[in-house]
C-alpha cells in the first residue's frame, strides 16, 4: 500500500469501503451455507427421514463435503469482515475532529449515504460533503495484513 500521505482521495475512499465489501462477502458466504444445508437435507435420508433408493449413496458424501466447504468459507468471510471493521474503525478514530469522525463512521461503517447523514446530523448536505472531504485529508489508512 502507498504511504497515506501520497494516497489520493479516491484511494482512501476505496480503502474505507473494504468493510462494506467484506460485509457483502460475508452475506454471500452465509447464503452459500444456507444453500448447502438445504441441499444436504434434501438428499440425505438421515436428515429428512424420507425413504430413498440406494442409487443416491454418492450424493450424501458430496453434500457433506459442500456443507463443510461452505462452513469454512463462511468462517473465513466472518474473520475478514471483523478484521476489516477493526482496521477502518482504527483509521477513523485517528481523525481529530468529532464531526468528521461521525461522518466517516456513518458513511463507511453504517453504510449511510451523505444525504442520510446530513438529515440525521441536522447539517446541510454541502457541509457534510465538506466534512467528508476534510476527514479524508487527515485519514491515515493502515496496511491490510490479512488481504
Q: What report would you give on this structure?
A:
With 147 residues, this protein is an all-alpha fold. The protein is 73% helix and 0% strand. The protein contains 7 helices and no strands. The chain has helices at 9-16, 18-43, 45-48, 59-93, 98-109, 114-121, 125-138. The radius of gyration is 22 Å and the shape is elongated. The termini are close together. The mean pLDDT is 85.
Largest sheet: none
- Which structural category fits the helices and strands? mainly alpha
Count of alpha and pi helical runs = 7
Instruction: State the helical fraction.
Output: over 70%
Mean pLDDT: 85
**How much beta, percentage-wise?**
under 5%
Shape: elongated
Low-confidence spans: none
Number of strands: 0
Cα-atom Rg, whole angstroms?
A: 22 Å
Element-level helix/strand string: HHHHHHH
User: Distance between termini?
Assistant: 11 Å
Essential attributes:
147 residues, mainly alpha, 7 helices, 73% helix, elongated
Amino acid at each position: 500500500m502507498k504511504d497515506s500521505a501520497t494516497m489520493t482521495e479516491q484511494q482512501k475512499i476505496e480503502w474505507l469501503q473494504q468493510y462494506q465489501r467484506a460485509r457483502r462477502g460475508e452475506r454471500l458466504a452465509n447464503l452459500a451455507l444456507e444453500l448447502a444445508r438445504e441441499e444436504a437435507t434434501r438428499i440425505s435420508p438421515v436428515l429428512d427421514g424420507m425413504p430413498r433408493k440406494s442409487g443416491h449413496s454418492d450424493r450424501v458424501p458430496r453434500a457433506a463435503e459442500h456443507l463443510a466447504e461452505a462452513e469454512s468459507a463462511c468462517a473465513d468471510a466472518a474473520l475478514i469482515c471483523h478484521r476489516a471493521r477493526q482496521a477502518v474503525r482504527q483509521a477513523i478514530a485517528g481523525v481529530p475532529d468529532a464531526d468528521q469522525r461521525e461522518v466517516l463512521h456513518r458513511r463507511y461503517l453504517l453504510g449511510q449515504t451523505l444525504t442520510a447523514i446530513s438529515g440525521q446530523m441536522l447539517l446541510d448536505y454541502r457541509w457534510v460533503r465538506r466534512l467528508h472531504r476534510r476527514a479524508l485529508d487527515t485519514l491515515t489508512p493502515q496496511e491490510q495484513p490479512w488481504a
